[in-house]
Amino acid sequence: MIFGVLPQKKNQYALRILGNCGEFTSEELLRLSELTAKFGNGKITATSRGTFELNGVSESELEPAIEAVQAAKLRLGGTGATVRAVVACKGTDCRKGMFDVHAFACRLDKEFYGIDVPKKFKIGVFGCLNSLGKAMAQDIGVMPSFTEPGKFEIYIGGLLGNRPVQGKHIPVPLKEEMVADAIRYVLDIYKTNGIYPQRLRTVLDDKKELWQQINYYFKTMAK
Questions:
Q1: Torsions phi, psi of 54, nearest 5?
Q2: Do strands 75-76 and 87-88 pair parallel, antiparallel, or not at all (unpaired)?
Q3: Nearest-10 Cα torsion for 204, 207, 212, 218
Q4: Which pLDDT value is given to residue 2?
Q5: Is 105 helix (H, G, I), strand (E, B) or coil?
Q6: What pLDDT score was predicted for residue 1?
Q7: pTM for the complete prediction?
C-alpha cells in the first residue's frame, strides 16, 4: 500500500498532499499546481482535513506522479489505518481564538501523525466554542476550557461517516503539557484492545470499563 494514494472512478487515482496542519506556502501551491497540470486533470480538491488532493491521475502516470510529488518535497500521506494529519482551526489568527491553535496542533501532529492503529484515527484542535461540533466529531477533539482558563477540554470517540456519533466529553480539564500524554494513553488503549476495522468509539463502547479507565487516568493526571 502506498499512503496518500486513493483509487477513484474510471481507473484513476488521487494523490493526497499534506501541509503543515492545514497550511501551505505559496511555493508549495505553485508546485502542486504544476504537478496536477502535468499528471492529473488540472483540478485540485481541498479536503475537510486541511489537505489537497491532486485528481485524475491515470494508472500509467501514477508512479511518475508519486516520484514527482516526492521530488517536489511535497508531503504525500493521510490514508490507511494510521493517525491522520492533525486538524487545526484558524484560531491562531481568528479574533475568537483563545490560544495559538496552529502551533499546538503542529506539536501534536509531529508526535502522533502516521502511528499505526486498528483503523483511521483523527485528532483535531480548535480555538473557541464555535468549533465545538467539530471537536465532538473527532476521535480526539481538543478545545480550550471555558471553566478553567489556560486548560483544555477533551472529547473522545466522535465519528462522522454513515453512523455519526458525538464524542464524549471527559469532564477533567487538563493543562497543555498533559494533553499529549492523554492522547498517548487513549492511543495505547485503542491499539491494545482494537482490531481492524474497529474505530476507537466501537472499541470503547464494546468494553465500557475502558471509558472508566480513561476517566480515572485523566483525574489522576489533573491532581
A1: -85, 115
A2: unpaired
A3: -40
A4: 83
A5: helix
A6: 65
A7: 0.96
Separation of CA 71 from chain center: 25
Under DSSP, the state recorded for 46 is: E
- Residue 143, class by beta-carbon neighbours within 10 Å (0-12 exposed, 13-18 middle, 19+ buried)? buried
Question: Measured between alpha carbons, how far is 160 from 168 in angstroms, rounded to an integer?
Answer: 14
Distance CA 140, CA 62 (A): 33
10-residue block means of pLDDT along the chain (223 residues)?
91 97 96 97 95 97 97 96 97 97 98 97 97 97 95 97 95 97 98 98 97 97 89
pLDDT tens column, 164-184: 999 999 999 999 999 999 999
Nearest to 137 by CA among 113, 109, 118, 165: 165
Residue written as cell 466522535? 158
Residue 222 belongs to what H/E stretch?
helix 208-222
Residue 201 C-beta-side C-alpha neighbours within 13 Å:
20
Is 166 strand, coil or helix?
coil
Residue carrying the nine cell digits 491521475: 57
Residue matched to cell numbers 499546538: 104
Question: Given CA atoms 21, 24, 28, 29 in this order, what sign does their dihedral have?
Answer: positive
Q: Could you give the C-alpha distances from 146 to 22, 65, 132, 174, in angstroms and in order?
A: 25, 47, 12, 12
| Closest alpha carbon to 16 in 121, 118, 48 | 48
- Which amino acid is present at 156? I
**Secondary element (H or E) of residue 169:** strand 168-175
